[in-house]
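Model it.
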Amino acid sequence: MSPKKIRAVKFVTEILNWKKTSTAMEADAVVEGFSSSLYMHGLKYNKLIGDGDSSVSRRLNDVQPYGNDFIIKKIECRNHLLRNFCTKLTALAKRTDYPISIRKFITTNILRFRSDITKAIKYHLKNNSSVDQKVKDLKKIYSKLSVS
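Modeled.
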């Protein structure tokens, strides 16, 4: 058996005998993939598509599979971001320590909030404003919301 296959079999065996949390499994699997990418494929991955959970990128930053000088950029996946957002809003709407009127408002508007975020993402991708201008725009929007 080739060294690559031996390493793959060893990794699968470790996963099957996993004793830690699923979050740790995900992080360790990604770190293993990044760490072996140079050996197995002759590649260094410079981007990680994430789901809003920072444990994987934090683990990659701790391990630094390609050395201190190589930065791995995390790209947030819009679909995961929106799913996590809606899940957290749903959980918030179930908390009985908030008034029922607020919980009903959240529940009936979750899809609208999601749609608004999607539209904002599309707008900001098309808008070539500087970061300073985007911050000013957000502050302006926030000040209108807090007055209402």
